[in-house]
């Protein structure tokens, strides 16, 4: 059995013989870990007793108990000589290290001692434990240890050193980043394959874009690849692929290029359809190549680019020019393909898939076939991996059906497959079927329809429809089968009693409908057959669809128009007994027929029409009553004037409208694809940390690191050139010679900063002063920080322990960064008065009997409670009668608060309020509102969650309206007036996991810039600053801290422009810092990278998303 | 990279948690997982990759134990799945079988193994032979010792030499008085026979299993007389790629003991050794079922352990089945299994009986597939033949043994 059920136990045998087997195991420790007093055992003299105590603690950990209170006693045992005790202590220690940082420090000395042990196992374990503790305090010590172990004679220890690097990197020690990367480079250069594998893994988590490290060793890494351990292979393959693309670009001969750049004229060359040039086939080929294009574009394009592209009106994709392509005769590409192809024989399916992905992207079209067999072979491994591989094959097959077309038999379904796997196989089959293979596949489908799993049977029916649409030659055959199925299904008795049977029938009719839609005129008989079966088919949805088809094709061919009257009479007769959907379709169809019918029948049809309308008007369902009134109104005018043309156009409209409403999405393609073999590809969204392929040729070509890299290429040059995700760190380093700064504060809407008031000063004020000091101070801080740790260990012993000093290199770097940083700081005047908060509609006059209620978030903050958000609500009477007693209340706060209690998980307690409080501070009632009059009210609202809307009740004239108040996370904060130094200080305390960055495209400024294009270039920058600041301040309650402008760079280049905002979260007064950095040319859309530093991770992330969303959103003109 | 591994019993109890990174994963995620598994049933349990609100979860189910791996960031999903499978394999290898009690009884070893196998979410030592030298598997001597002395250590004091060499699968110099190598071809036949009795697909999935007990560092070569029948292959890491690419020769330094040297696939076989002909005639609220089994192509050896298994369709109320040979059992979840054993020479085994269809249904419209099981000792049905096995570097005498076995894999007969 592939899937033994969860319920099935293997206990039968084991339980009986438990008594025998359990003797001598640790069973009693797991069952009753606390049946003896653990504490004294830990202090015992005997290792065996210590062991037992530690095992008991481990059992408690395994069972989810918190036993951190034993920490001090356990730590003492780290000195034990017994390796088993050591191992157990380490296991315990690492589990609780973060909880008990102070006690952990007691153990550091022992680790240090163990690091000098002669036994490599002891050294490795000590290193693993030390790095695994993850405390900032000891991070520098751990780094020194790793540096030492990276040169250890034992392979195992070096491997552990490589694994320790990501642990150190997690601590975000910016000042040591280069040292860590250096070790990564060292270990990548190791001669032992085992170490290289681990180093590759470290590379991806520490410095995935530092390709200079790869460039140096590229050829050697390729050669060593087959000997690297399987897990390392998976990672290393990915790194090499990224490097080649970044360095040399994509391959001209690859599928990726040929499919995505194929223009319409070349289509005939495509494999299987050379002979037939029918329109539909042509269309299908076109969609395939479009899909392929989409897929490959997604590989290169990050989620942010995708979002900004889809949100902007023009869907023009960035074109890759020919210079970004290389040929597969390129040595570098050749080596990559050569070294990965034997890996297709790997026993590890993850390696096979990783190697196949490289070939998929880089291999030439002729050679790509070699990935097919290995991928299909992997399908024979565990069901979990089978699922993953099938998901990937599905995408390959969609982009290039010819690849898998000959192997259709491998996708035939086995009875042991799970439903997910069956569905995937079916999907693949329907996308690779060809005219020749279709007859066999089709026979196979017929077997599937008889499968006991009816959901799967329904999927099969849908797949038949898809195949028929893809391969018009087989449509007739498919259609026939579907029709027999429809006939069969209703023969099998009372269909409603069977679950799933309905689904099969409905799916069959949907498929028939979509096939007819391709060429309606040739399927007239099918329509007649379907209509004839109406009195036997009982499923409402199926009936509704058949009736709809009658209306849609009522004027088709010869026979259909002749049978219309009879059918209509029949439908009118059974109208009352129909279900809702069928009734609606009877109404529509009758209307359509009425419009297009000619000759003497028209009178009969009218009679039927009025009969049906009469019935419908007194139907119990309001939808039907509405529809009947609507149709009656529309048609009555038309029928009276007898304008044939007009009537036709009207019917046309109804027709087309219905098509939209009823059309079944032929195939749900979500137009987002991720790299093959990635997690994102399986879960259909970009998982955190997902990186698309690097931009082709984004690495500059330097002779120095020409894949052997004899000389050590200067990493500095590379560093500045690496683009992409590193930007967030290097954004402030935009270089220039002078160091100019202006101090100045820009007040937001709240005028929180006094001192530098610039109310009427329309011209911005540029003050120039020196920021050099600030930077210097920072650097001094950093170095003093490292000195602080050096105090922990005497410098001498440290240096003697470590072979070479690394200080000098660090020093020079600091100096460099000091030179680079420069910008001018400016002040933007009177921006506060120009801030216009966005207005939302709470109640539309159409829904509120003429009462219009709008609201906007106010920048004021409540004095009553910090949890309250201020809103300005504007009531307007748009009706002709006066209104009285208008009030907005939270009717069911008790109920809603209960539900939030359930919803909010412990991690989401950011804005979880005391649930026993109402969501609204009672509003002052508006006694009366005359027509045309408006009234303003301030509202204090307690949102339960920063994303979920709040349901409120609005009373007016004693009538109740339910309204929804949508929160805006931008106003869950209040401005925090701080200076730039404060800002920097706070920012430095919120590194690593408290920092989130996203980028987006900003276009608002273009209009403004173009408007004043004659003025000085200086102004362009200001316009950008202003629009950006205005946009930020209008959408969130922030305080503008500083605006930094790049100085002496290209006049048209806005890169380096940097705005800083600050605020604090209302509920807990935690600061939240926003840095907006601009890149791009003044007159083009700018790439804006937004960075949020905030201790509340979830709030910070949501806040960042909100900021990015409103920045992308085109602005309502505030000109 | 993985952040945490949980082992769940088949009652949903968290037996073990092993945190792998600084971002601790709360075990409440297991409660969430189990709730979903209970409420959504099979369709959830068969999903290998799940995205919850906070984590991505990979699940592998083995012998009643659910292995969960959690991560929050992008990582190759197959890597996680393969790793969890490897953990299950290693545990199975250590304890002989795998079940809830065994995990609980040996939880210390499981912890030590996990700690050795994965470091910071990235696999560290996964070679079974190296692991066995760092953490000793439980054995009778150890157990007895622990009863007598009350103490035993299953943690090695020294690092296995293999971790330092470039062949991590080979343990440090084993010594045998009799050098011997056994090579076994284990083949599984996958076949689909459609409703009309046509053979849609028939292929062999085979493994070359080697049990090597040779002293020192032997360098072996294995060649086949007819390697051309192989459609595709996958190798143990010890196999060198070059000799295979050029001459289709397997050249390798074997791990010590039992291991899977390669797996292969042979496609498009022309016939199956036995035939199974099911027939269902349904009318008037009942359904007459008969299944005939017999030898189609005599492989020359006895075919034994023949079974036919199928799932009764959901609309069947009762079934009364009898056979002229072997026994028929109806198990839980309407699974019906007919154990035939050896096919007798004198008669063709058959099973027949009446199925009663749910009231209101005239006839059956869904039909089960029959899964066939069999075993043939001494034959590799793919026709693959081992040519010779040579020991290159150590010219000493050694004993070679060859065996073959074919059994049914996914052998489906549709009705």
From TrEMBL, chain A:
Bias kind Acidic residues: ranges: 715-731
Compositionally biased region (Basic and acidic residues): 804-818
Primary location recorded for the protein, binned into one broad class: membrane
Keyword Protein transport: yes
Keyword match Membrane: yes
Residue ranges occupied by any AP-3 complex subunit beta C-terminal domain in the UniProt entry: 794-948
GO term, biological process aspect, one: vesicle-mediated transport
SMART domains per the UniProt record, alphabetical: AP3B1_C (SM01355)
Composition skew (Polar residues), residue ranges: 732-755
Key words, A-Z: Membrane, Protein transport, Transport
Location of the region described as Disordered in the Swiss-Prot/TrEMBL record: 706-758, 801-822
Gene Ontology cellular-component annotations: AP-3 adaptor complex; endomembrane system
Localization (cell): Endomembrane system
Family the entry assigns: Belongs to the adaptor complexes large subunit family.
The name this protein goes by in its record: AP-3 complex subunit beta
Protein's organism: Phaseolus vulgaris
Automatic annotation (TrEMBL), chain B:
CDD domains documented for this protein: AP-3_Mu3_Cterm (cd09252), AP3_Mu_N (cd14837)
Cellular component GO terms held in the UniProt record: clathrin adaptor complex; endomembrane system
SUPFAM superfamilies per UniProt: Second domain of Mu2 adaptin subunit (ap50) of ap2 adaptor (SSF49447), SNARE-like (SSF64356)
InterPro entries: Adaptor_comp_med_subunit, AP2_Mu_C_sf, Clathrin_mu, Longin-like_dom_sf, MHD
Keywords: Membrane, Protein transport, Transport
Listed Pfam families: Adap_comp_sub (PF00928)
GO biological process per UniProt: intracellular protein transport; vesicle-mediated transport
Similarity-based family: Belongs to the adaptor complexes medium subunit family.
Official protein name in the record: MHD domain-containing protein
């Amino acid at each position: 059995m592939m899937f033994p059920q969860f319920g099935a136990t293997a206990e039968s045998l084991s339980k009986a013989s438990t008594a025998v087997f359990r003797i001598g195991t640790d069973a009693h420790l797991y069952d009753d870990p606390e049946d003896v007093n653990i504490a004294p055992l830990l202090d015992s003299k005997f290792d065996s007793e210590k062991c037992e105590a530690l095992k008991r603690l481990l059992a408690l950990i395994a069972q989810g108990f918190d036993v951190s209170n034993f920490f001090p006693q356990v730590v003492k045992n780290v000195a034990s000589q017994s390796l088993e005790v050591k191992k157990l202590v380490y296991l315990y220690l690492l589990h609780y290290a973060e909880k008990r940082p102070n006690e952990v420090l007691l153990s550091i000395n022992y680790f240090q001692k163990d690091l000098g042990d002669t036994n490599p196992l002891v050294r490795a374990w000590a290193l693993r434990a030390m790095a695994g503790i993850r405390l900032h305090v000891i991070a520098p010590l751990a780094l020194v240890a790793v540096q030492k172990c990276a040169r250890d004679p034992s392979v195992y220890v070096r491997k552990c050193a490589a694994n320790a690097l990501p642990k150190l990197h997690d601590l975000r020690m910016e000042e040591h980043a280069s040292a860590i990367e250096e070790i990564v480079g060292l270990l990548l250069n190791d001669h032992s394959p085992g170490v290289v594998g681990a180093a590759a893994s470290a590379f991806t988590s520490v410095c995935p874009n530092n390709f200079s490290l790869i460039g140096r060793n590229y050829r050697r890494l390729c050669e060593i690849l087959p000997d690297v351990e399987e897990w390392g292979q998976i990672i290393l393959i990915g790194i090499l692929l990224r490097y080649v693309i970044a360095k040399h670009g994509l391959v001209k001969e690859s599928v990726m290029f040929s499919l995505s750049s194929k223009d319409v004229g070349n289509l005939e060359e495509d494999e299987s359809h050379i002979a037939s040039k029918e329109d539909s086939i042509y269309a299908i080929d076109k969609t395939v190549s479009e899909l392929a294009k989409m897929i490959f574009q997604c590989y290169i394009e990050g989620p942010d680019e995708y979002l900004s592209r889809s949100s902007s009106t023009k869907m023009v994709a960035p074109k890759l020019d020919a210079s970004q392509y290389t040929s597969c005769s390129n040595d570098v590409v050749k080596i990559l393909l050569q070294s990965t192809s034997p890996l297709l024989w790997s026993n590890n399916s993850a390696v096979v898939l990783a190697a196949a992905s490289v070939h998929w992207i880089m291999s030439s079209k002729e050679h790509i076939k070699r990935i097919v067999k290995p991928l299909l072979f992997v399908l024979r491994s565990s069901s979990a991996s089978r699922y993953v591989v099938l998901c990937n094959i599905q995408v390959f097959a969609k982009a290039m059906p010819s690849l898998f077309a000959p192997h259709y038999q491998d996708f035939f379904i086995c009875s042991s497959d799970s439903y997910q796997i069956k569905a995937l196989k079916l999907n693949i089959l329907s996308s690779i079927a060809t005219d020749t293979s279709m007859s066999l596949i089709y026979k196979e489908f017929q077997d599937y329809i008889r499968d006991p799993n009816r959901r799967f049977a329904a999927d099969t029916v849908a797949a038949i429809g898809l195949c028929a649409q893809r391969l018009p030659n087989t449509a007739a055959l498919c259609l026939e089968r579907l029709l027999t199925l429809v006939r069969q299904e209703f023969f099998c008795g009372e269909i409603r009693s069977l679950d799933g049977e309905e689904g099969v029938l409905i799916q069959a009719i949907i498929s028939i409908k979509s096939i007819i839609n391709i060429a309606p005129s040739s399927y007239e008989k099918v329509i007649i057959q379907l209509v004839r079966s109406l009195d036997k088919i009982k499923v409402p949805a199926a009936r509704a669809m058949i009736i709809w088809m009658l209306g849609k094709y009522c004027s088709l061919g010869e026979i259909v128009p002749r049978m219309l009257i009879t059918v209509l009479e029949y439908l009118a007769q059974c109208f009352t007994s129909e279900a809702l959907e069928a009734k609606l379709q009877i109404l529509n169809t009758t209307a359509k027929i009425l419009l297009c019918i000619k000759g003497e029948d028209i009178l009969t049809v009218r009679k039927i029409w009025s009969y049906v309308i009469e019935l419908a008007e007194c139907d119990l369902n309001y939808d039907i009553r509405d529809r009947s009134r609507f149709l009656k109104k529309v048609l009555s005018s038309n029928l009276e004037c007898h304008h044939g043309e007009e009537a036709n156009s009207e019917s046309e409209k109804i027709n087309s409208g219905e098509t939209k409403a009823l059309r079944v999405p032929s195939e749900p393609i979500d137009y987002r694809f991720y790299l093959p073999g990635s997690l994102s590809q399986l879960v259909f969204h970009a998982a955190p940390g997902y990186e698309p392929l690097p931009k082709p040729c984004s690495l500059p070509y330097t002779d120095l690191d020409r894949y052997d890299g004899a000389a050590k290429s200067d990493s500095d040059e590379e560093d500045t050139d690496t683009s992409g995700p590193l930007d967030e760190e290097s954004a402030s380093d935009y270089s220039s010679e002078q160091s100019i700064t202006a101090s100045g504060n820009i007040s937001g809407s709240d005028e929180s900063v006094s001192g530098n008031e610039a109310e009427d000063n329309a011209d911005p004020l540029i003050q120039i002063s020196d920021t050099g000091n600030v930077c210097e101070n920072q650097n001094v801080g950093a170095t003093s920080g490292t000195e602080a740790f050096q105090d922990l260990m005497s410098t001498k012993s440290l240096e003697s322990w470590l072979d070479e000093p690394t200080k000098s290199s660090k020093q020079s770097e600091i100096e460099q960064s000091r030179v680079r940083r420069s910008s001018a700081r400016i002040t933007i005047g009177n921006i506060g008065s120009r801030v216009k908060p966005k207005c939302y509609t709470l109640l539309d006059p159409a829904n509120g009997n003429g009462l219009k209620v709008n609201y906007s978030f106010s920048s004021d903050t409540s004095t009553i409670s910090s949890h309250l958000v201020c809103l300005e609500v504007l009531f307007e009477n748009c009706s002709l009668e006066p209104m009285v007693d208008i009030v907005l209340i939270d009717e069911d706060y008790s109920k809603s608060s209960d539900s939030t209690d359930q919803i909010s998980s412990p991690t989401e307690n950011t804005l979880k309020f005391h649930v026993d409080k109402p969501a609204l501070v009672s509003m002052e009632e508006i006694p009366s509102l005359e027509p045309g009059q408006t009234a303003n009210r301030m509202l204090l609202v307690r949102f339960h969650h920063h994303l979920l809307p709040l349901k409120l009740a609005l009373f007016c004239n004693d009538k109740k309206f339910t309204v929804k108040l949508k929160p805006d996370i931008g106003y869950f904060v209040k401005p925090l007036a701080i200076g730039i130094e404060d800002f920097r200080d706070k920012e430095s305390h919120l590194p690593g996991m408290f920092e989130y960055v996203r980028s987006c495209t900003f276009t608002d400024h273009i209009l403004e810039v173009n408007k004043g294009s004659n003025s000085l270039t200086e102004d362009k920058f200001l316009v950008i600053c202003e629009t950006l600041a205005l946009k930020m301040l209008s959408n969130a309650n922030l305080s503008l801290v500083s605006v930094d402008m790049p100085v002496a760079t290209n006049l048209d280049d806005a890169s380096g422009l940097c705005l800083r905002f600050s605020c604090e979260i209302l509920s807990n007064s935690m600061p939240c810092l926003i840095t907006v950095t601009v890149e791009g040319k003044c007159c083009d859309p700018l790439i804006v990278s937004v960075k949020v530093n905030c201790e509340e991770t979830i709030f910070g992330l949501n806040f960042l998303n909100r900021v990015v969303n409103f920045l992308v959103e085109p602005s309502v003109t505030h000109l | 990279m993985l952040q945490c591994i949980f082992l769940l019993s088949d009652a949903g109890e968290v037996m073990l948690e092993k945190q792998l990174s600084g971002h601790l994963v709360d075990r409440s995620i297991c409660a969430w997982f189990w709730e979903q598994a209970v409420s959504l049933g099979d369709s959830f349990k068969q999903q290998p990759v799940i995205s919850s609100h906070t984590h991505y979860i990979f699940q592998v189910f083995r012998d009643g134990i659910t292995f969960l791996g959690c991560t929050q960031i992008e990582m190759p999903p197959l890597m996680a799945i393969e790793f969890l499978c490897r953990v299950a394999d290693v545990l199975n290898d250590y304890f002989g079988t795998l079940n809830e009690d065994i995990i609980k009884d040996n939880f210390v070893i499981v912890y030590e193994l996990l700690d050795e196998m994965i470091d910071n979410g990235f696999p560290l030592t996964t070679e079974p032979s190296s692991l066995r030298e760092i953490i000793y598997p439980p054995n009778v001597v150890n157990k007895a010792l622990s009863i007598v002395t009350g103490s035993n250590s299953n943690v090695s004091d020294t690092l296995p030499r293999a971790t330092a060499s470039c062949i991590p699968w080979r343990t440090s110099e084993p010594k045998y008085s009799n050098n011997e190598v056994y090579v076994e071809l284990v083949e599984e036949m996958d076949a689909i026979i459609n409703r009309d009795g046509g053979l849609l697909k028939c292929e062999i999935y085979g493994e070359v299993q080697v049990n090597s007990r040779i002293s020192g560092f032997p360098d072996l070569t294995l060649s086949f007389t007819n390697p051309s029948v192989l459609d595709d292959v996958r190798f143990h890491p010890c196999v060198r790629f070059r000799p295979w690419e050029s001459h289709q020769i397997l050249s390798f330094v074997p791990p010590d003991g039992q291991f899977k040297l390669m797996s292969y696939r042979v496609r498009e076989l022309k016939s199956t050794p036995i035939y199974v002909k099911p027939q269902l005639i349904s009318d008037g609220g009942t359904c007459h079922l008969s299944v005939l089994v017999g030898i189609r192509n005599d492989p020359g050896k006895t075919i034994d352990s023949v079974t036919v298994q199928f799932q009764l369709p959901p609309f069947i109320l009762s079934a009364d089945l009898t056979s002229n040979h072997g026994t028929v059992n109806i198990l839980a979840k309407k699974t019906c299994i007919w154990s035939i054993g050896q096919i007798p020479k004198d008669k063709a085994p058959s099973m027949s009986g009446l199925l009663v269809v749910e009231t209101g249904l005239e006839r059956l419209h869904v039909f089960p597939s029959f899964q066939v099981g069999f075993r043939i000792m001494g034959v590799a049905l793919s026709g693959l033949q081992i040519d010779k096995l040579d020991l290159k570097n150590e010219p000493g005498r050694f004993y070679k043994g060859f065996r073959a076995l074919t059994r049914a894999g996914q052998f489906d007969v549709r009705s």
